[in-house]
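Case study B.
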Amino acid sequence: MTRYIIRRLAFALFLVVAVSSASLLLAGAVPGDFASGTLGLEGARRDRLEQARERYGLDKPLAVQYRDWVAHAVRLDFGNSLLYDRPVGDLIPERAVNTAVLALTALTLATVVGLPLGIVVGSRHGGLMPSAIRAGSVVLLSMPPLLTSLFLVFVAARTGWLPISGMRSAVAPPGGAALDVLRHLVVPAAAIALPLAAMFERLQSQAMREVVRQPYVLAAVARGASRSRVVWRDALKAALRPIAAVYGLVVGTLLSGSFAVEVITAWPGLGRLMLEALSARDVYLVAGCAGMGSIFLAVATLFSDVALAFVDPRVTE
Amino acid sequence: MSTDTTGLKGPRHIAGLKGAGRAEQAPPLRTAGPGPIKGAGRFSSRSIGVVIVAVWALAAVAAPVVAPHAVDDRFPGLLNSPPTVPHVSFVQRPYIYRWMLVNQLEQRYEIDRGRPVPLRWFSGGTLVQSSDEARAPLLLFGTDSYGRDVFSRLLYGARMSLSLALVSAVGAMLVGMAAGGLAGYVGGALDEALMRTSDFVMVLPAMYVALALRAVLPLVLAPRVVFALLAGIFALVASAARVLVRHVLPAAGGFVATELAMLIPAFIVAEATLSYVGLGFPDPIASWGTMLHDASTNIRVFADFPWLLSPAAAIFLVVLGLNLAIEDAGGYERTLG
Amino acid sequence: MLAVAALLAAACRTDTGSTSGAAGKSVSTSIVRGGEIVASVRSEPRTFNRLTARDTTTDLVSELTQAKLVRINKVTQAVEPWLAESWTLAADRRTYTIRLRQNLTFSDGHPFTADDVVFAFAAVYDEKTGSILADSLKAGGKTLTVSASDPQTVVVTFPFAFAPGVRLLENLPILPRHKLEPALKAGKLADAWGLSTPPSEVVGMGPFVLREYTPGQRLRFERNPRYWRRAPDGGPLPYLDRVTVDVIPDQNAELLRLESGQIDTMSGEVVPESYATMKRAAGEGRVQLLDLGPVLWADSFWFNLKPGAFAGDARAAWLQRDELRRAISMAVDRKAFADAVFLGAGEPVYSFVTPANKEWYWTGTPATPHDPAGAKALLASIGLTDRNGDGLMEDASGQPARFSIVTQKGRPRLERGAAVVRDELKKIGLTVDVALLDANAVIERLVSGRYEAAMYPILPTDTDPGTNPDFWFSSGSFHLWNMSQPKPATDWERRIDELMAQQIGSADYAERKRLFDEVQQILYEHQPVVYFAAQKWYVAVSSRLVNVAPALYQPLPVLWAADTIAVRPR
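Model:
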């Protein structure tokens, strides 16, 4: 087990390096750079463009830039963000925390809602409620996240119950800062959580349905165990495996998947930061975000695999 | 790239069945007596699902005949106009009422009840059309912000999006099966390598790759090229996701359709997202992704122009149909309910 | 001076307009001091240093915290004394003696003298800094000579008798010498005042002071207690105590927030699709919807006219011909364009300078009639006709008459405009492909000349043509169709160079107008850029605001006069 974890950690580190490097090198292939973006059409003046490139350190050949970056990176200095004029190493954790808060809240919400619903739907057949739940899941799954978040923002604006933008109000209202953030969290977290809950529900109900068909479940029923005991004790453990398998990936990609929501609700998170960095061609920031994203993914999949390994020893071959 | 997390992963496990092939599963218990009652009737949910999917498939195939207009037919005076509802009457042919522009900037329309415009069947090469196309076109789902018929674009969009999703899903499964089979054959190291490659693919900033890709491609892309490109990208990413989630052997039976059901909305959304960096279908090609993307540019869509969201309803129906179709009809008698 | 980067930094959907225009000014008899407003911007500032970036938010920060020698009133287009109290022009018509206001201080209390003005010029002209403002403070490409004859007097000498005169000085924010001179001397001025600068360092003489910057979320400004300007009643300005600027990247979210009263002013104008929502809100008394009329500058559509750009391409025979553009101008129905792109809220225009620019518009500009048949005839004269009866034209070598338009993805106005051009030209048989790219990619193509046709907004900051030589002169970097030419590629461009050189040197307005009319005539004849319709601008502010002076000025239609905005007491 320990060897397994160490191996995974080593690969995770390699992944971070690989992804960051790939981002930096890709920058050479992408049209325009930070200098040309800042100058706009002024960049038609070659001398201005060259001067700006020099100032930002973009005039050196790509290989040299990469080498410099690596030399600094091993000392944990990930460069200065061109867009925000701050060290990437300071900027990213700040925003990552914001996204983590959002992602974890959404994940918790989605699990708490989706899992039980999936179990209920999967362990019954027919009936109005399971059908309604299933229909609801399908609706949420077929709406693109952009539309879901727009809709929620629209509803929040029209009803006026909740703030629809940002993470904090300009002036902390009575009740304190924490409550303020919580109120701002509702709309973006719901926007992410609802489709996620739908997916969990679908997966869980499918898994549940499969498990419930197994002979050992029927045997338990035949032995006279109560229905709810069979569902919630015997079948559930097995049926949780698909969710555990998926969890890691979901958490890992929640980072980049949240960017649409972050943009619409102006949540100052990593997804939005990455998008801005991409548009502005801030290469160091993109590399930093990509690296952070891979850390998220690596940690999340590691956790989920370890958890799965505990549940089902056959996984660690 | 699919930055949507909610659909790219399929369920790739079966509880307790790793390594044990299907053949070893004990034959299902059967109750005595006549065959199962629920779930096998003429209107079983499974058959409803199949019908829904079949209808959409048919719509996609028959779009050129069923759609009253072409994808780029524009009606300049009717931007974001409401649907023309067909009225059926026994005394005359079905007819519609014309929408008249009241205020262009506010995009307000008024119905002209004075003059019913009858519909014509099998004319102009299509199934049904209005008899006065110039002034009172048949717009079953209204028009979009360019003044194009949403219903026709929905049908043509079905062709584009469904075929893209199908091709991508098949591609993903082929790649997945090949990789998985190879890994199973070669053993542990390749398996690990595949997992790591999949991690890499999933975390690479997709937009960046898309931007880079767009840059090396020629400025003007033919729809065929875009289709092939998108299918390739989706297949790659989907199979990477599958690799990360799989714990057992390749799919069979029900899981294919389940995956498809999850992948289709994800592919459609991804297609819309990629168009942000110019890697989407060029205007005026209709696809559900780009239609939804256009709809989302105007917040009034929820309150005032709900027909613009018909692609979302269409996706919902397709996914619902798939979900229903794959549900195991046989075996209800063995559930706990 | 052409300000374009604002359009880039705004991540996608901002629509833009620009200077001048008549507008309703809501004057209240008794204005209450105090209160705060919330404004919104699409993206964060790139820096606090106006010398090195010109995106919308950086510009806004500069407008709020810095002051200039003169101000051009964006409503009347007149020059107003600002930090400069008065000025006289010497007999040689080149030297201005500018008298500064007495006893002014920066927001940190440091006194303001003529040396600060000299420093500001030095900072802008500094080679090492490479400021983007440098070109906008040059006359005919040459720098001005500035000296301080005494602490209250600055002498500015132009290289020749420059007609626009002190108008040019509106481009110069007077930066604090006591804060930035060390950086200038060390050659590091370009790096000064980056986003990590503590707000207390950002010192200026504008109406507000930067109090706080929360990255990713907002900027907060408070009134500058040492602001020099006084209200008509003699009391201090600004009326407001605080201005908060929220960063709202999504246009829909911004609209919803304005509608529900969470913000007081939007960035830019009300886009046509949102008009109905705003009208409804105005009807319910939640917002004020202001009609500013047609804008000064319409979106530009042009072809790549660089000689040799299409070498090796058989289409070179017709892609760069005048007749092609004149035919396009005739073929596109401008009313249909305005209807489709602006939902009818647009006026057909036929030239770069629009009727809204009353001072400089050539009233003889012909209104090109919508004449598809004439367009076809014109195209036939350069060899483009339908040779095989398929409804589409081919050129003399049998190639399809086909070209591509590059424009920015995510800006509905441009996407729709390009789509309308494509559809209209299809009717006469020309095939057009619209290529939508992201902002950076578009700029890269335009600057490197790898495009065939483009549609993009180009916005000068001032109505006086003498202040935007970059567009008119063939050597200019905004001479869209063929930038930065070492010498004019065509006769007519040479003629325009001559006329413009005379124009900016002439003292007499009538003479200048005559010369400039001739320039416009030449441009109309050759149509290097084709214009279709100018948007009618609507601006929405919350009903709390009073004394707003909205103007056709991009990107700050309302905040350009932030010091005189007030709020209704609750």
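The first helix of chain A runs from residue 2 to 26. The remaining cases will be described in the next quarterly update.
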